[in-house]
Design goal:
By secondary structure, this protein is an alpha+beta fold. 63% of the residues lie in helices and 20% in strands. The strands form four sheets. Strands 2-5-7-10 form a four-stranded antiparallel sheet, with helices on one face. It is elongated.
């Protein structure tokens, strides 16, 4: 017996702790959820990275117009037979060599390929900006719908709990009748079954609520389950004032998706111009500045003269006499590194013309492929128009249907409330049987749940239509 008291006490304490934690947990408003999602959502971050890549590509396209300037330097040691870079003679010795150069290349004309590339990259960047905006609009809509789904499931859970509590109270009444043997055993058994069914409904509703909270947390990229603010009413239920055609016309003006698709078409058209530039000659101007150094290079200085034999002879009076000559003597002197770089300096400047004559129909096929890309972009825009127009028409039709259903359910709830009030009094006074009572009770509870679902279904569709109008944020 003592163990049972201990277990019961532990369960109560655990329930109190869980309830206290639930009270202390922050409850997020819709605006807070949207703000967190815009900051944390992984899909949106990926879209932002693609937009940043488009920005860098645009910067690079503009930089490609600038001249190309490159410098070079090398230093090495050569051993064995080689060519002296200073004299161009063959030598067989170890030498240190070095070369330096500076080159300049400017594209003067290439069929406006560079200019069209800049325009295309700018259009792609603007399209990427619009895609970021479209992704933000989608995210705001998805967070709003997920938030409303949490509210819907919370409302349904509250109704199922109320139904369960009402059944518990009725069970106590019937249990006292049953113990006093003044009530019907069948009624008591039926209400036990009803209570089990109501308890199951509570568990199902709790599961649905938890799943909707997890879905919302995933959009916000939060690990913990979150609680939403259910105390402040977010929306007033009233009839929608715009037709599907009016919503579509606003969508054409406000949705970033349309703007991004239109920009992609213009970018593809620039791609055709870029491909056509392959048919035109390319004219460029080039220039260069070069010099070199070799450790084998020497400067020979005069150090005087001397008389030496030439190897020839003359005969004088029968005697061979060698022929002598005066020669200048030289002494080698190593030329310094800086002096060689200065002495060996040379420049080059010129114009280059590259005329395409035949390239295996590569240019022709590239133009054809780019034209196909334009057509695909146009089809994508038309498909977007068609899909969104059809979606708006379907959502608007469903919204009107669920609004009318909500009005009917309102009347039904009022009727069932009166029926349940009468049957509960009759049943508690023993005038009516349990079947009439539980039927009336189930009718009222189901009508309330259906009305709550209809209310949030209507609000969900209103938010979707507002999204298409550009009012998602």
């Amino acid at each position: 017996m003592a163990q049972r008291h201990i277990v019961f006490t532990l369960i109560v304490m655990m329930g109190i702790v869980g309830y206290t934690q639930n009270l202390n947990q922050k409850r997020y408003s819709l605006e807070e959820c949207i703000s967190i999602a815009l900051e944390n959502n992984l899909d949106l971050k990926s879209t932002n990275l693609r937009e940043h890549s488009a920005k860098i590509n645009h910067q690079q396209a503009k930089a490609n117009i600038l001249p190309s300037i490159n410098g070079s330097f090398n230093l090495g040691v050569n051993d064995g037979r080689s060519i002296d870079p200073f004299t161009n003679d063959f030598i067989n010795q170890e030498l240190t060599f070095s070369n330096m150069g500076l080159s300049l290349d400017i594209t003067v004309f290439n069929g406006f390929r560079l200019l069209n590339s800049v325009k295309q990259s700018r259009l792609n960047r603007e399209a990427a900006d619009m895609e970021v905006e479209a992704a933000q609009q989608d995210l705001v809509l998805n967070v709003t719908l997920a938030y409303l789904q949490v509210l819907n499931n919370q409302a349904v859970l509250n109704l199922t709990k109320q139904r369960f509590e009402t059944t518990k109270k009725q069970l106590k009444i019937q249990e006292s009748f049953y113990k006093n043997e003044s009530g019907s055993p069948a009624d008591y058994a039926d209400i036990l079954g009803q209570m089990a069914g109501d308890e199951t409904s509570v568990l199902v509703s709790e599961s649905n609520l938890n799943n909707s909270k997890l879905s919302l947390a995933r959009l916000l990229n939060l690990e913990e389950n979150i609680e939403v603010n259910t105390e402040v009413p977010l929306f007033d239920l009233k009839e929608y004032g715009l037709t599907a055609e009016e919503v579509y016309n606003e969508a054409l003006q406000n949705l970033a998706t349309f703007k991004s698709r239109e920009l992609r078409i213009k970018a593809a058209e620039k791609g055709v111009s870029i491909a056509k530039s392959q048919f035109t000659p390319e004219i460029s101007v080039f220039g260069g500045l070069n010099t070199n150094y070799s450790s084998a290079a020497q400067l020979f200085n005069s150090i005087g003269t001397s008389i030496v034999e030439t190897g020839d002879f003359v005969t004088v009076s029968g005697q061979d006499l060698p022929v002598m000559t005066e020669q200048t003597n030289f002494e080698g002197e190593t030329i310094g590194y800086e002096d060689q770089l200065d002495n060996n300096l040379n420049t080059v400047i010129g114009v280059a013309v590259n005329v395409p004559i035949f390239n295996g129909f590569r240019a022709k096929n590239n133009v054809a492929l780019q034209k196909i890309q334009v057509k695909e972009s146009i089809l994508e825009l038309e498909r977007t128009h068609q899909n969104i127009k059809n979606a708006i028409a379907q959502v608007h039709f469903d919204m009107e249907a669920v609004y009318n259903r909500y009005l009917s359910l309102e009347k039904q709830v009022k009727a069932y409330e009166e029926s349940y009030r009468i049957n509960e009094i009759r049943f508690n006074n023993g005038v009516s049987n349990f079947l009439n009572y539980v039927t009336s009770k189930n009718n009222l509870d189901n009508a309330k749940i259906n009305m709550a679902n209809a209310k949030y279904e209507y609000l969900l569709r209103v938010k979707v239509l507002d999204y298409y109008r550009g009012l998602a944020n």
